[in-house]
Specification:
three-stranded antiparallel sheet, mainly alpha, about 325 residues, 15 helices
């Protein structure tokens, strides 16, 4: 049997090609369709005849390398989906043709996907080529020959305190706690869901390295308004429950907003209070202040407001 499910409900793929056994464990929640796609990629990668040009393996084999690597990532299922999206363009192509494949992929996907989504598939291709280069399967890192698309589709929504209150009042108890924790700490949804009682100190929250996007631990001061909501930690709700509960709350409140916008709102409110970008960077856990500079226009808005008041006086 090439595809099976273990006692924990997790799917596995195992194939024998030329006396060689290849086994892959799929991430929790993967479907049988995902397993079949991975099986097909593995068969192509392992069963493909030796290419005519030494050091120029098929791109399908390169993507199989990336899929195996993706199992070690924090979001393996998502990473594999982005890699599989690029599969049709890699079919029948060699590693040395990666630049042309990337150009064709961009041209075909651009009418249907945002640049950020296309970049995830380009990133998977680039990562696969880098892995192949490090394993000396190709003479150069062909991924350096093409670039990702500029991402100008960022959507930032900043909520006022009144809007946050309206949203929280429309939510269930656990979702309401998550909303206020997000606003008062700048934490991401996943970071909030993974908080435990042990992470709550006398005067600060510990956001563990394994739970952060940057894989770096950070601490967030506990302010007075936050303390009542920390009683709900750990939240008695999972990722899907919070997602669904938040969607119900925003519809009831009549506010078109994403949960991540609470993080943006935390930053905007802090900046409007005169907080330096470097401090906002540390609170949000950005690696560099460059990431925080996306909020720099809010500083300019405050300056214009002050000058407008001076202008009115004159």
């Amino acid at each position: 049997m090439s595809i099976w499910t273990d006692h924990a409900g997790r799917l596995h793929v195992g194939i024998m090609v030329g006396g060689r056994r290849i086994h892959r464990s799929l991430p929790q929640g993967a479907s049988k369709g995902d397993a079949k796609l991975i099986e097909a990629e593995l068969r192509k990668a392992i069963g493909h005849k030796q290419p005519n040009i030494p050091g120029d393996p098929p791109l399908s084999a390169i993507m199989a390398l990336y899929i195996a690597h993706a199992e070690t990532l924090r979001s393996p299922k998502t990473a594999i989906q982005h890699a599989l999206r690029a599969g049709p363009w890699c079919e029948g192509k060699k590693a040395s043709e990666a630049e042309q494949v990337a150009a064709k992929l961009i041209a075909d996907l651009r009418p249907h996907y945002k640049p950020a989504t296309i970049n995830r598939s380009l990133g998977a291709l680039k990562a696969g080529l880098t892995i192949a280069y490090k394993q000396r399967l190709i003479p150069e890192d062909y991924g350096r020959r093409f670039s990702r698309l500029p991402e100008n589709n960022q959507r930032h929504t900043y909520l006022s305190l009144e809007q946050v209150k309206r949203l929280a009042d429309a939510a269930s108890a656990n979702v309401r706690a998550a909303i206020w924790i997000a606003l008062l700490t700048g934490c991401r949804r996943g970071e909030i869901l993974k908080l435990t009682r042990e992470d709550i100190g006398p005067d600060h929250l510990r956001i563990r390295a394994g739970n952060t996007k940057t894989m770096r631990q950070r601490t967030v001061p506990i302010v007075a308004a936050l303390r009542p909501w920390l009683e709900a930690i750990p939240l008695q709700i999972n990722f899907e429950g919070l997602k669904t509960g938040f969607q119900r709350a925003r519809k009831k409140a009549g506010i078109d907003v994403n949960f991540h916008d609470l993080r943006h709102s935390c930053a905007s409110l802090l900046i409007n209070l005169g907080t330096p970008l470097e401090v906002v960077r540390d609170i949000l856990g950005h690696t560099t202040v460059k990431t925080t500079e996306r909020y720099a226009h809010l500083h300019v808005d405050r300056q214009k407001e002050a000058l407008d008041k001076l202008s009115a006086m004159i």
